[in-house]
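Hey, I'm writing a tutorial for new members on how sequence and structure tokens pair up, and I'd like a real worked example in the thread rather than a made-up one. If someone can provide the structure for the chain below, I'll link this post from the tutorial.
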Amino acid sequence: MKAYLNCNEPHYSLIFWDQILDMTPGPDEQSVIVALDACKTSPGGSLDVQRVWKPIVARDMAVTPTMFSSYVATLVLTGNIEEAKTEIEVKSEKYDRISR
């Protein structure tokens, strides 16, 4: 995934992300962060952010402070500033008591 991202091919990184979702054991912290990084430059932008984040929430995956920070930063960089603010206000304590 990271190789595609470094070659300026975020679309292929996200295709690889979809494959990771179908694998056992599935995504880990690093794959989530790379997938979110791919969203920052992908044509799908904010739609791709949800494509990455929704499965994390649906799987009730343990969200680390780094993952949550990456998610919020990606929301901002894709133009979803209000949604990012809401996420920080509502969910920051849920995800390992991240300070505001």
